[in-house]
Amino acid sequence: MYTRALLAAIALLTTEVIAAPIAGIAGVMDAAGASQSAPAAHSPANPDAMDAASITARMKAAQDALARADNRQAADEALPPGIPPELLSERRYLLQQQVTAYALQLDMIRRAEALKTRAEIISGADVMTPTDELGKPPYSIVLVDRLRQQLQTVALAVDSIEAQQLVVAKEREIVTRDYDAAELSRRQSFEALERNRVAGDLPRLRWLWQFSELRAHSHGARLQALRQQEGVLATELAQTSSAFRELEARVAQTESKVRFNAADREVLLARQAERRTALEGELANARADANALEQSLRQRQQERDEQRDTLVKLRAALDAARNQMKTPGAAGGKDKHSHTVSIAELEAKIARLNDSMTQAQRLLELEQVRAMTAGDKIDILTRLIESQHFQHVFWDLRYAAEQPGATQATTEALRNGVRELTERIKEPSRSLRHELQLTLDQISAMQDRQANATPEEAALIRQTINAMQDRVQLQLRGLTEVGQLRLMATRWSEEFNREAADRSAKARLDAIRNEVVDTVGDIWSYEFTTVSDTAIVDGQTIATQRGVTVGKLVIALITLFAGFWLARRVARLFNNHIHARFGIPLQTLNTASNWVLSGVFAMLFVISLAIVRIPLTVFAFLGGAIAIGAGFGMQTLLKNLMSGLMLLVERPFKLGDTVEVAGKRGTVTDIGVRASTIRNIDGIETLVPNASFIEQEVTNWTYTSGKVRFAVKIGVAYGSPARRVAELLLEVAQRHGKILKDPEPEVLFEDFGADALNFGLYFWLDLDAGTAGRIVTSDVRFMIDKAFAEAGIVIAFPQRDVHLDTSRPLEIRMLDTAAPGSPVAT
Q: DSSP character for 47?
């Protein structure tokens, strides 16, 4: 049938594409002891013939020439005088390259024949329409998934072939340049040989010409092999692309009409169960083998330890015998001969034991490699069984998602599961590749040791290499299984993306909404940390762990700030009501409410944590930091807090009082938890820490009463009527409406000044009534000035009387103020 032929071709193609790198790895493993051959300068067959027999003959001739070149002594003897010895190494390299090129040509011929046969198989098959081949829709999910897997495999094969074409094309360009240069060198060498007339130079020129011939043939063979490889790759690409298009058409035909019924599910799950049963049986055998290898490894270690102890004893006995021989007065003659024989026997035993220990150590290394391989096998089989479990779960989810009435949650669970699987298989894949590279490096090191080892050692090393090769095959198996699982996850992801692209706008919006909800839910459930707590269950106290998540933190903050906002609103309404009902000043009520709100905030903090079940122990780790901060950085804050509490209790001043502290005078407008506010006469408010009111002297002008005495000082000229001045001052004080009548104002004649008679007007003001002392004193001064002007009383000002002594002539002296050396005016 056409489909069977097509799938057979795909299988062959996939096998070749995937087997190429594995074959390369196998070649590295089997390279120990293998000798390579190099090409000859001339072929016994037609050099232009490209059939397999002619190429085989040329390769045989090149291998013979390479064998002769490997005989370094014979090659040196055949080297003509004047030829640099390093050309022998280059000649051997060219022969080796020629053999490799002929081998590649033969390989390309075989691949070309296989491609031709494959094309004949496909073209000779009975061609049927896709509908006849696939049956009637709807198509089984098993069939569709298999077609998608085949399409994915062929797509990888197409990519691999295209990558190989790029590499081969680049190499062909390089080899073409080398071939052109070799042809030029060959022609020049031949011309130099023709022009030669010196008999002594003939061997050297002939050898150089043959060498240039070899170089041209070697590069030509390589160039021809690359051209053949390009042709084979082009044919492979054409056939693979044709298969890809055919499979793509079939997938497009089937994926739009897919069914996933219970029968399909049972088929898939039966395959999964069969595969898992086989893996579990293999795992049981692997564990049994690992236990046996572990016992063998312990036995080998015990044997090595016993041999080591015996070796230590023999060396101690040998040292004692040698010391006894060196002791003065030791036995001579026959006894000396017996001691010498004893030392020789000990040395022979030690040599044999050393050889035995070396053998035991190598056997121990072999057992260790086998044990590591058994452990890797158990690990890989465990991962494969786990992957089978994942596939089982995913097929169940996919079946549920395909059923009518499936919820969006089921589809999202399947999608998230595929994403999780894709992420989880990344690390095993990297780990297996790293282990594979490490094992190959170990094999290469073992091969180097084998080249210089004795036959007995080489046999053990070969066994170790074989064990490592088994490990490589196991790792390749793991990589293959992981690769297939990754391809399945990628195939399903592409299917989900395709389904998402075909959905309606409403479905897309629903999907976006669900993704947003899932993302927000993940963020909401993200745990910052976990704390230890206790819970009472059935009367028993049980220790448990509680997580601190983003959601809990947000709820706690909302509870805290919403509750505090509500408490502030209630406090403001309560203050207004109390003020309107009882007349208590709002400033006093606000101060009290601030302290109450501080306690409410602390209570809300504890309540918000209790609502979201976050224990207070989450802050236990801050206990030490808080203690240190309270002792150093927080001492000022705590001092002010305690001072504020003391001010609230003792009440040395209240809102509206006029106080003076730390050189600042003003009216108290607020008494806060940490600091109080004072507004001075200029309307500037100053925050004064509460501790300043406790530690420093405080003057409260209105502590027990708002009555404060003020004074206005004035001086009048000598000769003014003192009693009249006192009467005018009292009249001024009595006329001002803000000045209190009780206590009465008073006028004092305070002093005979140097320039005036000094009087003082003293009067009382009630600051609680809102009287401003500076304004009243200013008014009083204006009134005094007017009253004195009307009464003809002069307000004194500073003055000095100068008296001259006229009892004798006044002495007048001219002073010279010019600079020294300058002429004096006359």
A: T
**644 CB burial (10 A radius; 0-12, 13-18, 19+):** buried
Q: Assess contact for 69 and 91: CB atoms under 8 A.
A: yes
Whether the Cβ atoms of residue 244 and residue 155 lie closer than 8 Å to each other: yes
Contacts 24+ apart (CB under 8 A), 299-303: 300/360, 300/363, 300/364, 300/367, 301/364, 303/360
User: Which parts of 221-321 are beta strand (E)?
Assistant: 258-259
Q: DSSP code of 258?
A: E
Question: How many residues are present in the chain?
Answer: 826
What is the token pair recorded at 123?
């073209």
Q: What is the mean pLDDT of residues 763-783?
A: 84
Asked, as a colleague might, if the bond just before 137 is cis with ω within 30 of 0, I would say no
Which two three-digit tokens encode residue 607? Answer: 């309540």
CA atoms of 672 and 56, how far apart (whole Å):
105
| Residue 811 or residue 286, greater confidence | 286
Closest CA to 227 of 42, 54, 50: 50
CB-based contacts of 481: which residues, under 8 Å, 6+ apart? 380, 383, 384, 387
What's CA 619's distance to the chain center, in Å? 28
Give strand pairing partners of 226.
none
Report CA-CA distances (Å) from 119 to 10, 52, 147: 12, 21, 21
Distance CA 94, CA 216 (A): 9
Q: Which residues contact 310 (CB under 8 A, 6 or more apart)?
A: 353
Instruction: Tell me which residue of 654, 766, 649, 655 sits closest to 707, measured CA to CA.
Output: 766
At 17, the pLDDT band (50, 70, 90 cuts) reads very low
**Mean pLDDT confidence for 584-604:** 77
**Of 772, 759, 754, which is closest to residue 711 (Cα–Cα)?**
759
Burial class (CB in 10 A: 0-12, 13-18, 19+), 65: buried
* Range from 116-130, 258-272, 391-405 carrying the lowest mean pLDDT: 116-130
CA separation, residue 743 to residues 707, 734, 764, 765 (Å): 9, 12, 7, 10
The predicted-structure confidence for 775-787, as pLDDT tens digits, reads as follows 888 999 999 999 9
Q: What is the pTM of this model?
A: 0.43
Task: Check residue 411 and give its pLDDT.
Answer: 67
Is residue 163 helix, strand or coil? Answer: helix
Cis? peptide before 138, omega within 30° of 0:
yes
DSSP assigned state of 795: B
The pair of three-digit structure tokens given for residue 569, joined into one six-digit string: 């609103």
Using CA atoms, how far apart are residues 395 and 401, in angstroms rounded to an integer? 10
